[in-house]
Specification:
heterodimer, A: 246 residues, alpha/beta, Rossmann fold, seven-stranded mixed sheet, 8 helices, 11 strands, 33% helix, disordered N terminus, B: 316 residues, mainly alpha, 14 helices, globular
Chain lengths: 246, 316
């Protein structure tokens, strides 16, 4: 078993946190991802793509909730292709799914406590950091997560992943279905998490304009195939259309 | 001293306490972790029979209370190991698969109890059991045993309440609500489920041991699905996700029929052997249908986590 996140140093920007090589994955006999290769450094790496492109499948595979058909996944130089989901989390991979992202029967505080089951840092210290990132949660900790709005649920899910003290955060369309106000706020928060906490972010999005605004690099996923990652500043409308195969 | 207490009433109260204990354990399995268990009679019955066989058929070099303790520990361990094995078998199955798997296990125990007559006594039953103490008349011994069993069930209730407040309980709820998400949080959901099933199955076996001693005689009819249905009916009526659900539900079902109606409602004598047992099962079934239709979370309603968290953390 590879060493835990708490024992490993923080990577510099150029070092790969995640290395994906010739990755194929899917559901049973249905292959969704075809031969994907890219790496995520200490950056905000955004994957754009339409519905059905394979974004959720990719993140579920990286969180080891779906099996790898072929290819490999590396985490900070260690091959974790066949690690279990809980082992991946212990290494420092935080996953925030798009749907069913909170435990509805638990309160907000309990959701955050569940996130803090691993890691060596003091719970109160992690909790305070989450409250600084999501101040709205501070006064609502005793509320059932099942009664929260979409935006509040995303905050709780994201906060729970941060309680794990991750080295890379996998965010699956975190702004899908949110009001424009929340969308703006959430993108700012994602950027802040990366800059202040030194956490690499792998973000999937459909909202290309907003996502490109905070991304360092970007890749377009179309029908399970990925374009060559480029700097976000270089992703022009034409290149985007080409990558989307429009 | 116990003149006011009827021996049948002790037996009825003992049955109620047993079903409450089983209901509490099923609450941990199905109410928190959402691991379906239709084989309660199997785990309980395994403890009952392993104890009966070890106590009644093995020639121990020492007497009670050591004989009882050794046999009780072995029977509890046998049920726990069976729980671990069954949980491993069903760990990746959906609710339907788990229901069939656990029911299958209980059926195997029933068939072994019936067919392996050299060991179990078959339909004729297995005797030679007794209390590990002698405090005087049978009624006094039975009353002491009832108190001991009540203490064990109180311990189970305390354990359930502790689980509700503990990080382990939150993990179980997380696993039950959304297992893939729970797995992505750094804890093995499979290990959490296997641990819970092993502990709770062992406790079911211990309750089986208490039953064996109380009645001093074991027959296959003890380990039929009726005990599973009684525990489930009580739990679902009371509230499957609530710690107190099994207690309240069993009081309104088993206690109502087996104590209140049996002892305090003046009915024609022949009803007790014919009409009441049939009416009991029919009314349990009807009550289940009505509760599931109109109050699907049971009489106590849904899990009250916010209240619990307020009490623990004293939120303003």
């Amino acid at each position: 078993m590879p060493e835990t996140a708490a024992e490993t140093p923080t990577p510099t920007t150029a070092e790969a946190v995640l290395t994906i090589s010739n990755l194929c994955s899917g559901y049973g006999s249905v292959q969704v991802l075809h031969d994907l290769s890219f790496e995520v450094r200490n950056e905000i790496f955004t994957i754009l793509g339409a519905n059905g492109a394979g974004k959720t499948t990719l993140l579920r595979t990286l969180a080891h909730l779906l099996p790898v058909t072929s290819g490999s996944i590396g985490f900070r130089g260690t091959d974790v292709t066949h690690a279990a989901a809980h082992e991946t989390a212990r290494l420092g991979v935080g996953y925030v799914p798009q749907e069913a992202a909170v435990f509805p029967d638990l309160t907000i505080l309990e959701n955050l406590q569940v996130g803090a089951m691993i890691g060596d840092r003091a719970f109160d210290e992690c909790l305070e950091e989450v409250f600084q990132t999501f101040p709205d949660l501070r006064s609502k900790t005793h509320l059932r997560a099942g009664n929260l709005s979409g935006g509040e649920s995303r905050m709780v899910a994201c906060g729970r992943a941060l309680m794990q003290d991750p080295k890379v955060l996998l965010l699956d369309e975190p702004t899908a279905g949110l009001s424009p106000l929340y969308v703006e706020q959430f993108f700012e928060t994602i950027e802040s998490i990366h800059r202040t906490r030194n956490v690499a972010v792998l973000l999937t999005e459909q909202n290309a304009t907003k996502a490109l605004g905070i991304a360092d690099r970007v890749m377009v996923l179309s029908l399970g195939e990925g374009s060559t990652p480029v700097d976000a500043a270089e992703m022009t409308k034409e290149r985007l259309k080409e990558a989307y195969k429009l | 001293m116990l003149d006011w207490l009827d021996a049948f009433l002790i037996s009825g109260l003992f049955g109620v306490v047993q079903i409450i204990g089983l209901g509490l354990l099923v609450h941990l399995q199905m109410g928190l972790t959402r691991v379906a268990n239709f084989g309660v009679a199997g785990f309980w019955g395994l403890g009952l029979y392993v104890f009966g066989i070890l106590y009644g058929k093995v020639d121990w070099p020492f007497g009670d209370p050591w004989q009882f303790l050794v046999c009780a520990i072995a029977a509890t361990a046998a049920s726990a190991l069976a729980g671990l094995f069954v949980a491993w078998l069903i760990s990746d199955l959906d609710v339907d698969g788990a229901l069939v798997g656990t029911l299958g296990f209980a059926t195997v125990i029933f068939l072994l109890a019936t067919a392996w007559s050299d060991l179990t006594g078959g339909a004729a039953g297995l005797g030679g059991l007794g209390f590990p103490y002698d405090a005087g008349p049978a009624k006094t011994n039975e009353f002491i045993w009832f108190v001991l069993t009540t203490a064990i069930v109180a311990g189970i209730l305390a354990y359930v309440l502790w689980v509700h407040r503990s990080p382990y309980g939150r993990l179980l709820i997380a696993v039950g609500t959304n297992e893939p998400l729970a797995r992505s949080l750094g804890k093995s959901s499979t290990r959490a489920k296997l641990t819970l099933f092993t502990i709770t199955s062992g406790m079911m076996g211990l309750l089986g041991v208490m039953q064996a001693v109380m009645f001093r005689f074991i027959i296959p009819a003890n380990v039929t699905i009726n005990i599973t249905l009684a525990a489930l009916a009580g739990l679902i009526l009371g509230g499957i996700t609530r710690a107190w659900g099994a207690v309240v539900g069993v009081l309104f079902t088993v206690a109502l029929f087996d104590i209140v109606i049996q002892f305090y409602v003046p009915l024609p004598q022949e009803w007790y052997t014919q009409a009441i047992p049939v009416a009991r099962e029919a009314i349990f079934g009807l009550a289940l249908v009505l509760v599931l239709l109109f109050r699907p979370k049971g009489m106590l309603g849904e899990m009250k986590r916010p209240q619990l968290m307020r009490r623990i953390h004293d939120f303003k």
